[in-house]
Amino acid sequence: MMKIALIGATGFVGKEILKEAAARGDSVTALVRNPAKVEKLGGVTAVEADALDTAALSEQLKGHDVVISAYNPGWAEPDIQAVHIKASKSITEATKTAGVKRLIVIGGAGSLYAEDGTQFVDGAHFPAEYKEGALGARQALTDLRAETAIDWSFVSPPFNLAPGPRTGKYRLGKENPVFDAEGKSAISASDLAVAIIDEAHNPKHKQQRFTAAY
User: Fold this and answer.
1) How is 91-140 classified by DSSP, letter by letter?
2) pLDDT confidence of residue 152
């Protein structure tokens, strides 16, 4: 059993991480804006938290084995890039101050690399409605790459991330998308959660970014 602090436990990916961790018998502190929205599961404690309040968050993270951040300011946030960067820095600093050595951050797919060496977020066809958020996530990864005091991992999902069944199967990559035989790069949110909790229990990507798809 692990003691996991999960930031953003009611989001699209966060709620799947919560279910996966609880199903494995982990003790999870769900740190969210609205604790009433957290699914009631065995071993889960819902706590109100503010990712931008570094000092308070640090106190809430103390005593955990790993911090998993599925933080997202929300796509309706008008200044999503700046808020994402600020909150990501706050979460990293709070993790260090709390004395937690392991941090897993779920970011975006936009900073993955295409075959020509460019990042998808810089491409002309990257969806405009997601660009500011993707740029914030990319900067969060850049900031993490400079961190040596904690064992961080950054998770980039594939571009096709949708609700779906838990199969427990996935393939891993690092800086480039993982494609199947048909040229698709996809995974269900449930199986992405499997990959994330697998990484929490059996770290393979310390100070690295990784991705997972079928």
Assistant:
1) HHHHHHHHT--EEEEE--STTSBPTTS-BGGGSTTS-HHHHHHHHHHHHH
2) 98
